[in-house]
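ingest -> validate -> predict -> emit
validate: passed (alphabet ok, no gaps, 250 aa)
predict: started
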Amino acid sequence: MKKTTISFLILVIIGVLCFTACSNNKETQIPKKQLITYYPIERYKDIPKEYKDTTKTYMDLYHVSFGEKMPKGKEIDYSDLSEPEKDEFIAHTLMLQKMGFNTQRNIKIIEPKNRRKLIVQTSFGKMKSNDGRDESITDLNVLDVLPTFPGCNENDRKCFIDGVHNVFFKYYDKKIENKLGLPKGQLTMILNFTVSNEGHIVYAFGNAPKKELLSELERVMILLPKMKPAELNGEKVAVKYSIPITVLVD
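emit:
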């Protein structure tokens, strides 16, 4: 009986070790770059062969025109991507934002079955002029309804700020501080962004002492969720924010 119990415990320990090893292997597995595929294939058949045969990426691109259906597969979150995939997604998103496209509405991540992950651009079209490109409000006191962070009550300023802070510290890569050799102590940076009249985060830029930190602030701000837009005199309006963020450099 005693031998049976010991044998059973040994089998359990071996099983746990195998599971842990497999899980760790899965977490650390990094995808390899492959030649990019543009979907739908029939629409992009005229892309020069020499370009397609030299472009390697971690994910493929899928462009959905108006009226078309999304590609089949599971929609996944940015946090589900590996580190190199995250870098690729952010690079693509930043490029579109600088071109004046509303990236939060346009970009999704789809994981099809037995195929590479897809960066899916779901719509085209420049942003409207009243979404913060030309006119936006900076004085919150004049608003009838403030921009509302998901899960917050209407006009709850503290909840809005807390929500922005939570997203920042969830995605902020603290390792960058050591890479830059920043002096120890408190470091305050500024997040500048506009909540458009559709609730999207647009025109995000940061104030920080290093270029690499500015890129990191932009990367994180793109990941802020869609908000409920502000209202003034019965109309939805764009609102500019400047929010200080303090990090402790160890």
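The longest helix spans residues 2-28.
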